[in-house]
Amino acid sequence: MKILLAEDTRDMNRAISTILTLEKYDVESVFDGAEALERLKKDSFDGIILDIMMPKMDGLQVLKAIRSSGILTPVLLLTAKAEIDDRVTGLDAGADDYLTKPFAMKELLARVRSMTRRHTEYSGRELKYGDIVLNAANFELAGINSVRLSIKEFELMQTLMLNAERPLDTRYILEHVWANEPEARPDTVWLYISYLKGKLRSVDSRLSIEGERGGSFRLIKA
Amino acid sequence: MPELSGTQNYTVEFNDFTMTGNSDSENDSSTIYGPHLAEMRRILREVVDEITSVRAALKDEFGQDPVDHCLARIKSDESMREKLRRKGLAETADNALFEIKDAIGVRIVCSFLNDVYTIRDRIEALSDIVVTEEKDYIRHSKSNGYRSDHLIVRVRGKYFVEMQLRTISMDTWAALEHQMRYKKKRTDNDTLIRAELKRCADELASTDVSMQTIRDMIMMDL
Fold first, then answer.
1. Is residue B43 part of a domain?
2. Confidence band for A87, pLDDT divided at 50, 70 and 90
3. d(CA B95, CA A198)
């Protein structure tokens, strides 16, 4: 599980980072909002912890920017006790949860677990990107035409759409779409990418997936 | 071309090529086609021969005949008159031959998706056949899920022939859809049947793409 932690107070950043690492999370820390946004545009995470008060760009601005670019990664906001308006604005802007400082590390861990668990609930929705709608209720991929996807094709398409325009490497895809399936290999990813490329063409979509066998893949508007 | 599976039509089979026609119109000119009928039969035979040589050439090139089977027919007198009436056209030979473009019909059924387009390209390249219209219902399927590539071609600058190109699974689907369409009783199940047929069409289309992808992968490893 990859977590992006954006917190400008050095001690707080180090403390959270240490405890999450102990819990086997793969943590990347940044110290201001602009850096957080930069990282989020380039890479994909399973959860984001965003402090509201940060230099350069505050947490709310980062949140609004990522949601408007279609990044649906779960966000946990860290707020100060007095910032009630911020919490409301934050939740309205697409945060999944918030935690008021000061907090117990135990609670932070519970909220991170809850937030990353909730990620799978995106499977209850309809995802849209470009000219494509992916329906989680019936695994339908619809453009001008529609086709029905298999479970793995659906999960891969969902992952690509949630990370549209950002490259995902083969290892990341294996860990997320084929978690707990040791028989899956890089060529499995390549075959399923090839299926989806064909299926995007068959619904006459203008989206395409770029990338080479074994490398990184990116869903793009052609 | 629904009357291809009609029961009153006689059928002549040679190799895997099936030609059907109305037995009572074999030697007379009492049909709507009048004196054109003999010429239409010659055209039909000619087109069939052309397709047979396209198949032979492809088999030489790739070691495999891309076509599973072919059907050819002249639209029965009865269905032609019915179609003219439905379109509000007078029941004349001219209308039957030049307003309605499927008096002569050929259906080419391929094993794999790309074969459909290979055959299409070879037909387009033939010197004595001019493609005047193409409707690609594979890329832009009809709302009920129907998929096929339809070509209207003109032979010797005069007669029109409708060619339907599709895969085996599209063909199987069309046969079932045809049965539903001509089912005598309307029941409460009709809506369910239509929705399920649409779902099957989308699943089959998806599987056609997957099979083509696997086939490409096999070819690459050879």
1. yes
2. confident
3. 41
Q: Are B130 and B154 in contact (CB under 8 A)?
A: yes
In chain B, residues 108-147 whose CB comes closer than 8 Å to chain A: 138-141
- Mean of the per-residue pLDDT values of chain B: 87
Domain count along chain B: 1
Residue to substitute from B213, B214, B218, interface A, most A β-carbons within 10 A: B213
Does residue B206 belong to the interface with chain A, where contact is any CB pair within 8 Å?
A: yes
Tokens representing A15? 């403390």
In a domain, B83, yes or no: yes
The neighbouring-strand residues paired with B162 are B105, B152
Tell me, yes or no, if B213 comes closer than 8 A to chain A by beta carbon. Answer: yes
Cβ contact, residue pair B205, A150, below 8 Å: no
| B31, part of any domain | yes
First to last CA, chain A: 31
- Which of A148, A191, A198 minimises the CB distance to B202? A148
Residue B96 lies in a domain: yes
- For the ranges A72-81, B114-123, B148-157, the lowest mean pLDDT is seen at A72-81
Has residue B188 got a pLDDT over 90? no
A141 - beta bridge partners? A134, A147
The edge-to-edge listing of strands for the beta sheet with B159-167 is B10-14, B17-21, B67-74, B104-110, B159-167, B149-155, B129-136
Tell me, yes or no, if B196 comes closer than 8 A to chain A by beta carbon: no
Model pLDDT, residue B185: 82
pLDDT of residue B220: 84
Instruction: State whether ipTM is beyond 0.90.
Output: no
Tell me the pTM.
0.71
Q: How confident is the model at residue A83 (pLDDT cuts 50, 70, 90)?
A: confident
Mutation pick from B147, B170, B209 vs chain A, by most beta carbons of A within 10 Å, is B209
CATH number, residue B156? 3.30.460.10
Domain extent, residue B126, equals: 8-173
B220 touches chain A (CB under 8 A): no
